[in-house]
Structures are given as C-alpha cells and as structure tokens.
Amino acid sequence: MAELKLSETRDLTRIERIGAHSHIRGLGLDDALEARKVSQGMVGQTSARKAAGVILEMIKEGKIAGRAVLLAGQPGTGKTAIAMGMAKSLGEETPFAMMAGSEIFSLDMSKTEALTQAFRKAIGVRIKEETEIIEGEVVEIQIDRPATSGAAAKTGKLTLKTTEMETVYDLGSKMIEGLSKEKVQSGDVIAIDKASGKITKLGRSFARSRDYDAMGPQTKFVQCPDGELQKRKEVVHCVTLHEIDVINSRTQGFLALFTGDTGEIRSEVREQIDSKVAEWREEGKAEIVPGVLFIDEVHMLDIECFSFLNRALENDMAPILVVATNRGITKIRGTNYKSPHGIPIDLLDRLLIISTQPYTEDEMRQILDIRCEEEDVGMSDEAKELLTKIGFETSLRYAIHLITAAALACQKRKGKLVEIVDVSRAYQLFVDIKRSTQFLIEYQEQFMFNEVPGEIEEDTMVE
Ligand SMILES: Nc1ncnc2c1ncn2[C@@H]1O[C@H](COP(=O)(O)OP(=O)(O)OP(=O)(O)O)[C@@H](O)[C@H]1O
Ligand SMILES: [Mg+2]
Fold this sequence. Notes:
Layout (H helix, E strand, L loop, with lengths): L6 H4 L27 E2 L2 E2 L2 H15 L7 E6 L5 H11 L6 E5 L2 H4 L4 H11 L1 E22 L10 E7 L4 E6 L1 H9 L6 E6 L5 E7 L15 E2 L7 E11 H8 L7 H4 L7 H16 L3 E5 L1 E5 L6 H10 L7 E6 L3 E3 L6 E3 L4 H4 L2 E6 L4 H14 L6 H13 L2 H17 L7 H10 L3 H10 L21
Helix pairs in contact: 2-3, 5-10, 7-9, 12-13, 12-14, 13-14, 13-15, 14-15
The structure holds adenosine-5'-triphosphate and magnesium ion (MG).
C-alpha cells in the first residue's frame, strides 16, 4: 500500500435519515450557552442542554480528548434527542458517529472490532493537498463530430483564457462528456482538476454580463482569472479514519462504505494507516479532528466492551465519548455484579454525568406542538390539549406516536383538522403500557411464559 486511496473518499456524501428526532436542529443555546426555552426544536431540559453545550464548546476548541459523558435519566426525557442536537451543532467537519449498545451483538464481527470501527468513525482527518488545476474563461468549445456516426470517439478543442494568456487544449471523449454534463458554454469560468479531470463551473465572466439572453436570475458572475492558466491550489478534505480503513482494506473497497458490510478490517491495515497519518501530521499535511462517538443504550454493552472503552479513551487520538442510559442500579452485563446504570465503577469514574428530568405538562405540550408541525399534521387546540393530557398520564413517546394515528383517523373521515374524536379514536386503537399491563394482569393465564408482572420494569429509572 504505497499511496492511500483518497480520491475515492472525497466524493462521499453522508446520508441523513428522518425519524423520531428529525425536528431537532441543534441544542437551542444562545451565545452565552444559556438554553433558550424553545429553540431549534428543543424544549425545556435546560440544564442538561446547557451542560451538553459546554461539552460541545470544549470539543470545538479541541481542549478535551478522550473524555466521556453520560446522559442519564428516565425513558423519554430527551437523552437521544440531546445527543442528536449535539451532532447537529458540531458542523460538517467534525465527525459524529452513533451506535446503539445492542448493535455490538448483532454484527458478524467481534465486539472489539465493532467498537474499534465505531471509534474510528468518530476520528476525522483533515488532509491538505496541493493539486494542479487549470482555471480560465472559456473562449470556445469546438467538438468534432466523427464522420461515421457512433463509431469513433468524439474529439474536440477547448480554448481557455486568462487576462494574460490564451491556450487551446485537445479534448478527449471523457472531457467532452464532463463539459456537456456541466453545461459549459463560452463565457463560463471553469476549473479543471488536472489529476482527476473533474470540471467545476465557477460562474459566468463579468465580460458577458450584458448578454441577457439565456441567463437565469441566479447566474453568478466572476472575474476572468488573471495570471497563468495552470495553478497550484491547496484543497482541504475531511475524512474519517474508518473511511480510510475501508477503502484501503483489500478485501473490501469503496462500496462497503455504503452497504455497511465492512467485515473485520485487518490490524496490519490499520497500523499502516495510523503510521501514514502520523507521517502526514509531522509533515503538516494532515490534522486529527477528534469527533464524537455516541453510544445509546450503553447498558447493553458487556464487561468486555466496558474494559475496551476504558482503554480506548486513553488513546491520544480518542474522540469524545457520549453514552446514554435509562437504567438505574442494575447488573453489569456479563457479570453478576450490580452497579449504577449497569456501568462498571472504573468507567463511571471517568464519566461526566448529565441527568435529564421528566417534563412538565407545559413542556410536553410544546414538544407535541413541534412534532405536529414536523409531521405536517394540523390539530385543533382542544385535541392538542387532550393529547398533552394523555402524554402526561402515559408517556411522551406514546403521545407522539398518536399524532400519526390520529391524523390517519382524521383523513379517513375526510376531516381537515385533527379533532378530539380522532385523538380518542387513536387512543382506543392503540393501548399504552399502563393499559396493556392492566390487560396482562387480568388475563395472565392466557399468555405464554407469564411471570409476575411487577418485574417487567425492575431496573429502569422510573419514579
Ligand atoms: N427537550 C425536547 N425537545 C424536543 N423534543 C424532545 C425533547 N425531549 C425529547 N423529545 C422528543 O421526544 C421523544 C423521546 O425522547 P428521546 O428519544 O430523546 O428519549 P430518551 O431519553 O432517549 O429515552 P430512552 O431512555 O427511552 O431512550 C423523541 O421523539 C424526542 O425527539
Ligand atoms: Mg434514547
């Protein structure tokens, strides 16, 4: 592996999913890191949000490495939401990797490999590269149509100029394709990456600003470049260590990044990459950007995983680890010992703990309001009132789920606005935990494997 393949990594885009937390657009803090009551989709939970903001600030300043934070609180109090808010406020360049504790057991790789991959997904590398580009204003594009149609490849000529010079370049079929894909015309200012042949349209030359025809209002005008046509430019791109791992692992390759089917990556590959990255860092070509690794439902990890985490946090490239749990004092998986949150004391000792509190009725109403908007559901005030009551009596999550169900009920009766009848219809159709448990107690003999119902929630943090 003489050269790391980077060009392929450059074209990666990250895919975002919509879901339970799609309304969260940040932590909703002001400049002084105080939590605004309602902002960026976030409601209440002010001290936890503020604490998360302080951690973010430390991450941005690069002050802490290998630190870990625990979000602890009852189910549905916004732990996962706060982690998503942190992810949204981090910015493009800082990696945020997320996994659920239980994923460790469902992957066809060892637990430590899965955790190693997760850690490396959360470590970014900013790589500076010098590339040669050709930048100029298009004077003319001339494409020769071959006499026998279709048979021979197209050829052509491209004339580019700067304020000082003009040159004619020969075009191959690949470049012609690129030019027509970008819809390049004479008068455009373009940049061509010499190594990859990638064409970027920078805008229209000011000299052409008087040709009104065939120009949209969004047309961007730029100066005709000066100096030489060929230039050296410094470009910076950010990739994660995991992306470099996968692309350079011989058995995998580029596509594995999309399928997630990366399998185990050999440790020699990682060692080579680490030493290459270390080399780049010494030469000033690369910088490490520690990101965030978020492990939700951390109580699902077992004692081996916890000891791996202890060690991994001591690595000097370690990201910030954020974990969340809703468990109280419970068994550490893989042992017979009990511990707060199901996390061993030695790891707990390294964690900064942020606790989340149950919501007031008012906060719940605001969260439900935001969710209605997010799901594009119009609901009358009285129906919202009822939904809030239901949420307060049962759980916030249950009430959130009822929004969709009530909207469907409303659609069915061809209504425009979700009314009380729709909410109560949904409430009757889908039972919440309390009613379901009640039902179980009444009819326990008829179910398989029934035990004493009181044990169901023995160790979650319920008041
Ligand atoms: N402060 C908040 N502002 C806006 N939406 C919130 C807030 N807190 C929670 N939510 C929303 O309520 C729902 C439940 O919250 P979330 O999933 O974050 O709870 P959790 O603490 O992770 O619960 P669990 O312990 O069960 O995992 C989510 O859809 C979440 O986006
Ligand atoms: Mg959660």
